[in-house]
Specification:
It is a single chain. The protein has four helices and ten strands, in the order αααββββββββαββ. It is of the alpha+beta class. The N and C termini lie far apart (52 Å). Bound molecules: ligand UDB and zinc ion. Ligand UDB binds next to strand 1 and helix 4.
Length: 213
Amino acid sequence: MSKLKIFNFISLFVIMYLVINMLLMKDVIQDGHPTLRKRAKEVELPLSNEDFNTLKSMMELVVNSQNDELAEKYMLRPSVGLAAPQINISKKMFCIVAPDEKTGQLFQFAVVNPKIISYSEEKTYLSGGEGCLSVDEEITGLVKRAKRIKAKVNIVDLETKEITEGIIKLSGFPGIVFQHEYDHLLGILFVDKMEETINDISALEFGEIEKDS
Ligand code: UDB
Ligand code: ZN
């Protein structure tokens, strides 16, 4: 067999392996599944290869979902975050890829064992309501969130597997996404916190453009 044939052969298996390991929307469990209602377990550090690969796949799904071509090809809902319990892994980890509504800056990170250590008194909510990858698409409801949060996190470098412990401050949209994903680790879904109308606090006018209908 020629070197080229061997190369093609190996490439084929590498591609098959990657496709088989790729997370898709079918892997996201839906409301009613018991895992979504459990408190997620602490992730053991140093990070195991298994947990690291899970985080990488989760990030890949979220990043791919924001790429028009890949989103169409794999039928992905354009997402801004995903927590491990949503793929039926009850561990404290999630990833976020969300733009700041003011600066346009992209907040992209994967965390393990996060802990929100302070919530601002001031509240906010998404004017268009929240949705969830684990809840039927039609339901979008208003959810009050803290306007600013401070959290202790272990940020995982998805290239090197290095972990950086630190305190992050988030506000606006990235802050809302963080609180939404954090709730998943506690077994809470946005539908639990939904309100019909909110008129005592200011809304975050954001996301009407890219939000899937
Ligand atoms: C989402 N996407 O990913 F404002 F650029 C939602 C879905 C459920 C509609 C796919 C989303 O909010 N996209 C969006 C919104 C914007 C601007 C923008 C893109 N999630 C993630 C999720 O379910 N994680 O568990 C729901 C979001 C609602 C509020 C925070 C997370
Ligand atoms: Zn969600």
